[in-house]
Design a protein that fits this description.
Blueprint: H1 2-11, H2 23-30, H3 39-47, H4 55-75, H5 79-99, E1 101-102, H6 105-130, H7 139-149, H8 168-174, H9 179-198, E2 211-212, H10 234-245
Antiparallel strand pairs: 1-2
Helix pairs in contact: 1-5, 2-4, 3-4, 6-9, 8-9
Length: 255
Amino acid sequence: NSKLLHLLLGKEGIDLAGVADDTMLYSYLLEPLASSHELPDVVLRRQGRKISNSLAEAAELTRELAALLRPEIVREGLKDLYDQIELPLARVLAEIETVGVRIAPEILGAMSREFEKELTELTQEIYRLAGGPFDIDSPKQLGEILFEKLKLPGGRRLKKSGQYSTEASVLEALAEKHELPRKIIEYRTRAKLKSTYIDALPKFLHPETGRLHTSFNQTVARRRAADFRGLLTDRVARAGASLRRSAAHRGLLAG
């Protein structure tokens, strides 16, 4: 795990150079769909062995694993990808994690107030469409309104709870038939964006650097740059752009 070594040594002012073998990256390139590329899991998959907590054993197994996986990387035609992309990227990600993301709390604060106002307005509109107030965050109450009160089609009860399903796919299908599901989708999207990002990010700022220090997972099979799909309205998408602008150091996420 060369990224971790870059991070740990970097904190001591040591610049790690000359990295040749990163067994975590080897494992990821050879088995991108594997659930884990941590040393104990790779050793168990490849050698059928369980390792102890001994650092000496871990070091020896890392050496053995590198000797085992390095030729496979070459045979599979992955050496250039490893040398030119993955290994240098590990260092870049470590540097980004160390520098952190500079966030402007005042921008997020203004956005939070704006979102709160919009959620209040959405709540009243939802009450109007539903014919009265109810707990919007209650799947049980929402399901009863959609499928019993409004008698919309496609109601499906969950086996365990007996409640109607109000997951995103159900609401998306209903949104073509009634305005209430569309408003619920919009409400959920904005509420999620507000609680998960706008209100939460300032709480994670480092007290000394004033920056957000995150961790990037390089060894995942999914797309490494997350995107918002499906449910974002234009209004909320613009809010996402405002979030990116709040990374307020010369317009860069890490500066």
